């Protein structure tokens, strides 16, 4: 079968990183990713099934890996060679026609282990067993040599990781369920989901978090920082109270309460800011424009940064990470508001995502699709993102005619 594979080659990683801002096509072609003929991964037990991808998304973390631009923190938490792709809607090979969405986290239950303390509490995003058990190292399917991933004709997944797809849900809506689950976990991370919220960034993470926050929070206003025309229009469509350019955020924060400003000091600001980018400038902007005692939620995958955190220290700002998904503390009022009436208050994030997906229609964020053998233009499009009117770029492994625009 065909699969895009990231191979162990320090020279290719360094070449991709050196060329990424100079000649993107050449960087991809010279990098660690290539299209190969490979065998389907071996199924560790009869609890594992073969899955044929239909659509598989290109995530920002995948782009960072291809261009060797991610934090080296993750190196020991993956196993090479691996096939990327963890945002997947597919079809079970043993049950033709049965469409499933994959929950890619490789937790204790998936690895054939007794639950660690976090998995026992439902906090599977904090699983301690990502480097042991039946599988090789890997946080998720798509970063593990044992499982394969969605950028292929076939991979393997544990029965527990598969969610049956409602017949009424489109493939485009379905491939957005994994990003939506991430966004739900992010939107539930703030201690208080009220007051004035700002979201910095309007790519997939920012827009899905906007959609989730509008459903799960009770904010007076939601401000979104977006650079590009399509991002700005989608932010308005998905419920933003106002959409700003990056250089407008400080003024908007100051106007909320007629705040005092002295240099970079601001006496008030947004109650909560979600940084959906993770760059030096966005983290510092978030810390400086949130109110004293407010919360900054880190949602964009960060790499190594050099930061001035004096405003965080002086204004007693909380900086908090929000990663992946697990089990959520959903209060009864919120569950009732979104129509999840059977909830016991501790639903799985993926269950909330499957419940909200038909209402949100996030398939509209799928702007471009490519075949596997078109991976160079696909990754180039995803890398440039909003600058080229791209939000979610996917690999299309159906038998439909290849089209680049969704």
Quick synopsis:
With about 400 residues, the chain is of the alpha/beta class.
Task: Outline the structure in words.
There is one protein chain. The chain is α/β, with parallel strands linked by helices and 406 residues long. The chain contains 14 helices and 17 strands. The strands form 4 sheets. Strands 3, 4, 5, 6, 7, 16 and 17 form a 7-stranded mixed sheet that branches. Strands 10-9-8-13-14-15 form a 6-stranded parallel sheet, sandwiched between helices. A hairpin with a 6-residue loop joins strand 4 and strand 5. Helix 2 packs across helix 14 and helix 6 crosses helix 7. The longest helix has 13 residues. The two termini are 25 Å apart. The mean pLDDT is 93.
Helices and strands in order:
Elements: E1 2-6, H1 10-19, H2 24-30, E2 33-37, E3 48-57, H3 60-66, E4 88-92, E5 99-102, H4 117-120, E6 155-158, E7 162-164, H5 171-175, H6 177-187, E8 194-200, H7 204-216, E9 218-225, H8 229-237, E10 242-244, H9 249-256, E11 261-262, E12 265-266, E13 270-275, H10 280-289, E14 290-298, H11 310-314, E15 318-321, H12 332-337, H13 349-360, E16 366-370, H14 375-384, E17 392-396
Helix pairs in contact: 1-2, 2-14, 6-7, 6-13
**Tally of alpha and pi helices:** 14
Stretches with pLDDT under 50, minimum 5 residues: none
- Gyration radius over CA: 21 Å
Strand content: 15-25%
Structural features:
single chain; 406 residues; alpha/beta; seven-stranded mixed β-sheet; six-stranded parallel β-sheet; 14 helices; 17 strands; 21% strand
């Amino acid at each position: 079968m065909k699969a895009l594979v990231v191979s162990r080659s320090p020279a290719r990683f360094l070449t991709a990183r050196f060329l990424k801002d100079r000649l993107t096509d050449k960087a991809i072609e010279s990098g660690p990713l290539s299209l190969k003929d490979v065998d389907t991964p071996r199924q560790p037990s009869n609890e594992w099934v073969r899955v044929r991808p239909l659509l598989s998304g290109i995530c920002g973390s995948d782009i960072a890996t291809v261009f060797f631009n991610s934090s080296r923190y993750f190196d020991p938490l993956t196993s090479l060679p691996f096939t990327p792709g963890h945002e997947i809607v597919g079809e079970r090979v043993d049950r033709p026609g049965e469409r499933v969405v994959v929950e890619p986290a490789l937790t204790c239950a998936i690895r054939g282990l007794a639950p660690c303390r976090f998995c026992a509490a439902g906090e599977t995003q904090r699983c301690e067993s990502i480097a042991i058990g039946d599988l090789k190292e890997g946080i998720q399917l798509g970063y593990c040599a044992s499982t394969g991933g969605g950028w292929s004709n076939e991979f393997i997944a544990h029965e527990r990781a598969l969610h049956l797809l409602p017949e009424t849900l489109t493939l485009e809506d379905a491939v957005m369920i994994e990003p939506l689950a991430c966004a739900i976990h992010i939107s539930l991370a703030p201690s208080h989901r009220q007051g004035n919220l700002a979201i910095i960034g309007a790519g997939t993470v920012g827009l899905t978090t906007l959609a989730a926050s509008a459903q799960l929070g009770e904010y007076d206003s939601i401000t979104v920082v977006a650079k590009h025309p399509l991002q700005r229009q989608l932010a308005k469509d998905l419920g933003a109270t106002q959409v700003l350019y990056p250089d407008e955020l400080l003024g908007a924060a100051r106007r909320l309460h007629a705040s005092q400003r002295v240099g970079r000091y601001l006496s008030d600001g947004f109650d909560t800011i979600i940084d959906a980018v993770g760059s030096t400038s966005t983290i510092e902007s978030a810390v400086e424009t949130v109110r004293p005692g407010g919360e900054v939620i880190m949602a964009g995958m960060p790499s190594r940064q050099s930061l001035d955190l004096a405003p965080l220290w002086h204004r007693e700002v909380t900086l908090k990470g929000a990663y992946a998904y697990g089990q959520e503390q959903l209060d009864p009022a919120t569950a009732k508001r979104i129509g999840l009436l059977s909830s016991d208050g501790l639903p799985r994030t993926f269950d909330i995502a499957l419940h909200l997906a038909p209402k949100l229609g996030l398939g509209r964020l799928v702007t471009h699709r490519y075949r596997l053998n078109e991976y160079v233009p696909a990754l180039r499009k995803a890398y440039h993102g909003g600058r080229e009117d791209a939000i979610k770029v996917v690999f299309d492994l159906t038998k439909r005619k290849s089209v680049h625009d969704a």
